Amino acid sequence: MAQTAQAQNNEASVKQLLEERDAEIKELMGPKGTEYDQEQRDKLKDIINGVIDYSAMARHALADTYDSLSQEEQEEFVDLFSTIIRDQSLNKLDIYRAEVKYEDITVDGNTAEVETLAQLEDVRTPVGYIMEYRTGSEQWVVTDMIIDDVSTADSYHRQFQKIIRQKGYDSLIETLRKRAAR
């Protein structure tokens, strides 16, 4: 009985976190056609990306290569990786106006899988989240997003591994530096 109550509490806390984040984004965005100054764009970027664990996604994207890097190299990679993802999150802001329906939330210990359906006008997009509960910070974080059945972490993994195989890690990091500087 206690496990059931705990699971419901965790499922409820996951849903609450995502719903509050969604409401905060929508409130800041205002009505369709709103122009954003740099301060608003930065705040949107922080809210949109604030629950993402970039370090976990970066480790997945680099696989074994990540462990072979020095701590300084790992930190640079995570910083560049997060900058690129954070910047991409503002490319199509209208998607954050979508109505979100929570289809299923499954919690198993410190991990959760969330299935949602985002609908913007006539377009329905399945969006999933893989999440982990961080005991030290007492919060849920997103370690992967699955949009239209495509895993963000797996997609970067495939791209980065291909570059590493063909041109080496140094080529990948240089490409990321240029991309993040834009």
TrEMBL record:
A Pfam family the protein falls into: MlaC
Signal peptide interval: none
PANTHER family on file: INTERMEMBRANE PHOSPHOLIPID TRANSPORT SYSTEM BINDING PROTEIN MLAC (PTHR36573)
Protein name (record): ABC transporter substrate-binding protein
Lineage summary: Bacteria, Pseudomonadati, Balneolota, Balneolia, Balneolales
